[in-house]
Amino acid sequence: MTNRRVALAAGASILLTGMAIGAESTTFRVTFPTDPVGPAGFPLLAAALLALGGLTLLLEGGIGERVPDEESVPVWAGGARVIWACLAFAGYAVLLPWLGFVPATSLMFAALATLFGGRPRDGLLAGAVFAVVLFALFVWGLGLALPVWPLGGGP
Amino acid sequence: MESVAQLLTGFTVALQPLNLGLALAGVLVGTVVGMLPGIGPINAIAILLPLIFAGGLPPESALILLAGIYYGSQYGNSISTILLNVPGTASAVVTALDGHAMTRAGRGGEALALSAVSSFVGGTLSILGLVFLAPPLASWAVRFGPAEYFALMVFAFAALSSFAGASVPRALASTGLGLFLATVGMDPQSAVPRFTFGQLRLFDGLDFVVVTIGLFALSEIFLALDRSTWGRAALTAYGRVRLRLAEFTGAAATMLRGSVVGFLVGVLPGAGGTLASFLAYGVEQKVAGAEGTFGEGDPRGVAAPEAANNAAANGAMIPLLTLGIPGSGTTAVLLGALLGMNVTPGPLLLERSPGIFWGLVASMYVGNIFLLILNLPLVGVFVRILRLPSWILMPAVAALSFVSVYAVNGSTFDLLLVTGFGALGYLMRKGGFPLAPVILGLVLGPLMEKNLRRALALSGGDWAVMFSSGLAVAFWVAAAAALVLPWMVEQARKIRLAGAAETD
Questions:
Q1: Cα–Cα dist B29/B44, whole Å
Q2: Helices marked H in A64-136 — which ranges?
Q3: Which of B222, B228, B400 sits opposite A77 (nearest CB)?
Q4: CA torsion sign, A8 to A10 to A11 to A16?
Q5: Which DSSP symbol is given to B199?
Q6: Which positions 414-473 of B are in contact with A (Cβ < 8 Å)?
Q7: Is residue B256 a contact partner of residue B123, using CB atoms and an 8 Å limit?
Q8: pLDDT tens, B132-191?
Q9: Exposed (0-12), middle (13-18) or buried (19+): which is A118, by Cβ within 10 Å?
Q10: pTM (2 d.p.)
């Protein structure tokens, strides 16, 4: 992607987000005489800032004069790895209550370690060790409630 | 002096055995977490914060632990900056110039010792400044009404955007995002649910720890994944970690100047450590003139930014504690932490709970001393952690982040949320959007909205109230100036360059 396209895409999506937030804000209609701003006023302000920022970016990208220098052109070398990591994290969120803390954390650790170029088996081992250390520290040390036992039997 | 006496009372709080132990633990843990590549104080505090809350400590002790972590993470950040050239914050970029050059020349140990001593000097001098400046500022700020507060917060945002060096439309969008995120949940005044999409778990709003860990820590992992190569950090021999007397006296004047510059810059909202380090470094270059070897491993190039950075961190405590206005991403996280401990910084803090105020100041100082006497001999142990390959370090940061997020509410929904914010932070950083205004917006948003609504309720809906006092107008003008000045300076430079080109 070129720099101009990045600016245009970012500007357009920010402008649309701002407009969507603004539209949603107008549905908050409770007006007390003691609260002239109401619940909609402040979100509208935030939406206006977003829309203004997005619009300026769009215009900059369209005119192309103030597009930042080449250093800031994003390079998406490892974009696929980032998506895999997101999936691994989401999977962790889903699996944590079912598998329990130590198995789920070991799996997530192993997946991320593999993405960082480690061997899966080493990752699993290191993950298991680290998960047990964290568990000992936080559950026994600080009394934190982590899902302990497999299949939803945690505290 | 009354405030000196109160500072001494603060020390009696900080020197209780439990609190001393907590300061020690905080400094150690903070150093280790802050040292991880790319993880600066913001990440370290956000990751460790839920664990502080979980400890169930009394507020003074929790604050002392927090201050220890804050100090430790700053020093940990210096370790990875000097030895590995991977600064975790913008302000450490300056330290990297000469610090890493010293490491390449085999003088890394000296640079580490110098960094610790300079931080100590900067911290000590700026605490003196804080003792004398905070009480009068607080008693002045007591008179602020809601309109003044609102305008002051607008100024804080404008200053942050302007000093951060990001493009103005990007800073605007980041600020808007932060303020929007602050409104998610049930509106406390009208009980209307906002942007919850019918999700009950969003009714309480977004927890700032979840947002911060996602935006800063997870996005750091995503950014690291995005790079094509990693592996074991290359560490060269760094020699003994100690400072000879001659080396200290050679840099003493630099430390003093760096501390003064850092403190003055730190008091300004938005400027913070980055500008302080750059300015102090620039001053030293000017003072040294031709005999300086800056950029090639000049010890003064380490002493100046490190002293300035620490002095700025303490200077930034003045607007944070007396006005309740954070001026940077890090102080915004600190404000969130204080609010989470039911400590509301502001002009009344000094009056109502002097024990907490002075206890915090004293514990910052105690943390500083611990850093000096404890971390210097332990650098060798810390460095062993840095030698671990990234396929162990990065998943470990992720696992620790998830434990923290889970500790906030005990909900796996938050784990999905933090992943989403991680992806958002990654995209924002790739696109050059500053992250600090998001956190500032999230933390200050509720306060800003409350003051806006209160001001307009008092005036019966007349917006002129926002500009009704001289002080409020002054803040509005300052905010406008902060936004417009960098642009005007740039234009002036262009005109001057064009003029110079013509006369050539």
A1: 9
A2: 79-99, 101-115, 120-135
A3: B228
A4: positive
A5: -
A6: 415-416, 418-419, 422-423, 426, 430-433, 441, 445, 448-449, 452-453, 456-457, 460-461
A7: no
A8: 888 888 888 878 888 888 888 888 888 887 776 667 888 889 999 999 999 998 887 777
A9: buried
A10: 0.86
